[in-house]
């Protein structure tokens, strides 16, 4: 496999790391502060633009570092709905980033906030049966810089600030743990992007050991669990990760999380017709949500080309919601029309990479045999 080494980007480096590099180059430490300011506060797209650095130093920095590694390939959607950015990476692969305007139903935000849904990996190894991201398998982790640059690219393109971040794009963030943590620190820092930790939500398919680890991370980020099944048999069918970390283990991790953290947990629950939308599942979900004091976001399934799953009727969605609400669980149901919402992340990239011949068109037949596989 060809592994084109990523150019090292300043967007993934802390001031301490920049300083170490500057000193290693035999330059005075104060240059590091200037470099960090140009990188984050002024967001220069090129080291050449760092005009208070001597020309010779700029040249030397350019030999080792860059400030951009990706470009906006396409933008779809409009300013008052969601805008999907397909970003082309240095190695020709693609990731998606979705900007979602005012939406009172979104995690911890007020209704005038702009939320960006970012990717953490190219592809995904977790093979959830309903999800487009994993259809072509896992390619690679994003670097911390590539995670951070998604925000930088979108803000530059739109001229708008992002107030909320959700790690709900392509990939499993907790499977890219150290890069995720480095990116969150940079995104949160005053010298960096400056987004409050409480305005960042990491979403996971349920990697119990990493949830334990994340519970000790000092920043008060939020955690969302992609539950999608309230019992092991239902979850096993659609999320192979459940066979590795069954619900008992996952909930053990969530209890540990709650013991250490102040923020409420969120459960995401995609409603898929005849798979997890029974009222029995709703009752079990209510019990589970209460057990760890979690809010529930119900998301009607977005159909994916090549996959057979469907969203249930609106009456059925409302009935499911009613069971939760009457059990005293805080729950919301996304009622947007159409399928153009953040949760469908992964589909654009799949089309692009398939059309360019980077990946083979996935064979859905292999993936929809529920209960099969490893
Ligand atoms: N791997 C992480 C983050 C990426 S997925 C996780 O599993 O949480 C972000 C959310 O989108 C998850 O809840 C995922 O289950 C959901 N999702 C994936 N495909 C979807 C689809 N077709 N319709 C609706 N939601 C989907």
User: Rounded to an integer, what's the Rg over CA atoms?
Assistant: 21 Å
- Our measurement of the CA-to-CA distance between the termini, rounded to an integer number of angstroms, reads 25 Å
Report helical residue fraction: 25-40%
The whole-number mean of residue pLDDT values reads 89
Number of strands: 14
Bound molecules: S-adenosyl-L-homocysteine
Principal-axis shape equals globular
Structural class: alpha/beta
- What is the strand arrangement across the widest sheet? 3-4-5-6-9-10-11-12-13-14
β-strand percent reads 15-25%
Largest sheet geometry: 10 strands, mixed
SSE pattern, N- to C-terminal: EHHHEEEEEEEHEHEHEHHHEHEHEHH
Low-pLDDT sequence parts: 104-110, 337-343, 363-374
Number of helices: 13
In words, what does this structure look like?
The longest helix has 15 residues, at 144-158. With 374 residues, the protein is an alpha/beta fold. It starts with 7 loop residues before the first strand and ends in a 7-residue tail after the last helix. A 10-stranded mixed β-sheet has the order 3-4-5-6-9-10-11-12-13-14, sandwiched between helices. The protein has a two-stranded parallel ribbon with strand order 1-2. Strand 4 (83-88) and strand 5 (94-100) form a beta hairpin. Helix 1 crosses helix 2, helix 6 (208-214) runs parallel beside helix 9 and helix 10 runs parallel beside helix 11. The chain has helices at residues 15-24, 30-41, 55-64, 144-158, 177-188, 208-214, 232-238, 241-244, 247-260, 279-291, 314-326, 347-355, 364-367; strands spanning 8-9, 65-66, 71-77, 83-88, 94-100, 115-117, 121-123, 138-141, 164-167, 200-204, 222-226, 265-271, 294-300, 331-333. The protein is built from 13 helices and 14 strands. Bound molecules: S-adenosyl-L-homocysteine.
């Amino acid at each position: 496999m060809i592994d084109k080494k990523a150019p090292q980007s300043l967007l993934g480096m802390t001031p301490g790391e920049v300083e170490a590099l500057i000193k290693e180059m035999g330059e005075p430490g104060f240059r590091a502060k200037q470099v960090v300011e140009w990188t984050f506060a002024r967001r220069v797209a090129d080291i050449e633009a760092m005009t208070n650095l001597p020309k010779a130093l700029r040249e030397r920095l350019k030999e080792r570092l860059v400030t951009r590694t990706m470009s906006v390939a396409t933008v779809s959607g409009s300013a008052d709905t969601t805008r999907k950015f397909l970003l082309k990476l240095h190695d020709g692969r693609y990731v998606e980033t979705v900007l979602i305007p005012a939406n009172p139903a979104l995690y911890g935000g007020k209704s005038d906030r702009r939320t960006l849904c970012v990717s953490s990996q190219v592809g995904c190894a977790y093979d959830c049966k309903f999800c487009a991201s994993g259809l072509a398998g896992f390619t690679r982790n994003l670097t911390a810089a590539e995670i951070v640059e998604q925000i930088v690219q979108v803000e530059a393109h739109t001229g708008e600030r992002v107030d909320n971040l959700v790690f709900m794009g392509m990939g499993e963030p907790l499977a890219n743990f150290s890069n995720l943590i480095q990116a969150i620190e940079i995104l949160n820092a005053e010298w960096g992007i400056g987004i409050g930790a409480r305005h960042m939500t990491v979403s996971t398919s349920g990697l119990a050991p990493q949830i334990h680890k994340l519970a000790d991370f000092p920043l008060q980020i939020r955690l969302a669990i992609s539950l999608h099944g309230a019992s092991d048999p239902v979850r096993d069918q659609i999320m192979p990760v459940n066979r590795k970390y069954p619900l008992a283990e996952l909930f053990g991790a969530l209890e540990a999380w709650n013991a250490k953290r102040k923020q409420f947990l969120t459960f995401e629950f995609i409603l898929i017709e005849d798979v997890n939308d029974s009222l029995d599942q709703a009752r079990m979900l209510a019990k589970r949500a209460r057990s760890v004091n979690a809010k529930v976001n119900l998301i009607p399934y977005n159909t994916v080309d090549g996959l057979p799953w469907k969203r249930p009727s609106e009456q059925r969605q409302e009935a499911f919601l009613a069971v939760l609400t009457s059990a005293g669980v805080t729950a919301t149901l996304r009622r947007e029309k159409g399928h153009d919402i953040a949760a469908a992340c992964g589909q654009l990239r799949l089309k692009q990479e398939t059309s360019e011949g980077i990946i083979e068109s996935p064979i859905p037949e292999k993936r929809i045999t529920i209960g099969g596989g490893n």
